[in-house]
Amino acid sequence: MMKIKDLHFLFKKRELSPLELLQDLLEKIKKEDKEYHSFLFLTEELAFSLARSAEEEILKGDFHPLCGVPLSVKDNILIKGEKCTAGSKILENYIASYDATVIKKIKEKKGVILGKTNLDEFAMGSSTENSAFFVTKNPWDKTKVPGGSSGGSATAVAKEFCFYSLASDTGGSIRQPASFCNVFGLKPTYGTVSRFGLISMASSLDQIGVIANSVEDLEIVFEAISGKDPLDQTTVDFSFKKEKISSLKGLKFAFLKEAFEKEVDDEIKKNFNEFLEKIKKEGAKIKEVSFESFRYALACYYIIMTAEASANLARYDGERFGKKIPGLDFFEEISKTRGKYLGKEVKRRIILGSFVLSKGYFEDYYLKAQKIRNFIRKEFEKTLQEFDFLLMPTSPILPFKIGERINDPLLMYLCDIFTVPLNLSGFCGISMPSSRGKKISPGIQVIGGPFKEGKVFAVGKILETLI
Ligand code: GLN
Questions:
Q1: DSSP H helical ranges for 313-396
Q2: CA 124 / ligand 1 centre spacing (Å)
Q3: What would the pLDDT profile of 383-392 be if each residue is shown by its tens digit?
């Protein structure tokens, strides 16, 4: 796949124009995506108008690296005047009335938004099978899942339908599908990218990030979308600075001991070990660390996430957004509307979340989970004070068959053991393939301290040359 910088160069030399590229990609998507279903729908009119403005911008001379570059957007990020379904029947006809901040930033730079990608309903899932519309297929094996919840975004990037995708990561939804589709994914530090205009799942964990085909592309997009936003009070004063690392020599990497436990597939363990050997040969110092909190992270996540999600999803009552079934009174209307238009997994999480927040159980579950979250953050902090980076696999398993786990929610939740700790800590990390190419390979997570995106990209670029 061509990199964003190479495309920029072609635009500069006028060897290709954004409109030509757009037409080619739309043709490719219409022909090939029938088999993969990465897009829920295309936003052609918008794409053409953005491509035309990109052409004008290029003619003026100086233009942003993302000008004219085609992207896709996970369908839980609002684009003014376009549908935003969150993969749910309840929002099937909902049209967004404003742009998310990240969209505003991309539009200012004349990025070309091609369409909205498929996801698990309200970003709840690890396989994209919870989408109320259809299942997205793994780009390298159509019998398998692409991961989730941003499976549509990861497949669209892997199939080269677009150069990058904007998506959300609450417990791994960028990194896990990136790993299943053999592409790169970034979960930024909490507060660096505005969540304004993202359909909330669990607000203290949600973060908008990027899926792309290289570390450098992740960096270019992160630089363009990050920064303080008065419309999101959780954003921080942050301006991204590029960093440079010239070799792995002397860098200190911690790796998670728990990556070698029995729940992890042998192939993942073997591959992770090989990766560690490779970086050791390059002069990196590696050391095993064990997180005492690791075995509680998944339970902690599924308590905090369901609690916040149940509160966030209360707004879908048929009165304010989307579809509504009339009833005798307000309560009948709500129960009929939510009963019919929300999917099984979403209902399961609303019930679980309401339970952990209910009187008498709040202290036992929610409060305890918050304490554990604090503990997890401290363990991350301690490790990343001592080491430059922390490494772990992205997923304990390789992509599984469509249908294989969907009827066993607990088995599905287990997919998230290596990704949820990062959201609980708020720190940043990327998932990168352990082997390049149009195939499936286990993903590796490279984790850095808060606001250390620059350092993670710098080392990621070196690691990318080893795969
Ligand atoms: N797979 C996780 C879940 O189901 C992650 C979701 C996400 O990051 N949006 O909750």
A1: 330-341, 344-357, 368-386
A2: 5
A3: 999 999 999 9
Which residues in the chain show pLDDT less than 50? none
The residues carrying an active-site annotation are 74, 149, 173
* C-alpha 179 to ligand 1 mean position (Å): 14
* Ligand 1 atom with least separation from CA of 416: 1
Per-residue confidence (pLDDT) for residue 250, from 0 to 100: 94
| Residue to substitute in 76, 117, 120 for testing ligand 1 pocket (most ligand atoms within 8 angstroms of CB) | 120
Q: Tell me whether residue 161 is exposed, middle or buried, using C-beta atoms within 10 angstroms of its C-beta: 0 to 12, 13 to 18, 19 or more.
A: buried
DSSP 188-202: PPTTSB--TTBPPSS
Strand partners, 113: 71
Whether residue 172 has its Cβ less than 6 Å from ligand 1? yes
Q: Does the reported pTM lie above 0.90?
A: yes
Does residue 171 have its Cβ closer than 6 Å to ligand 1? yes
Task: Give the integer Cα–Cα distance in Å for 287 and 283.
Answer: 13
CA distances, 165 to each of 101, 364, 440 (Å): 15, 39, 19
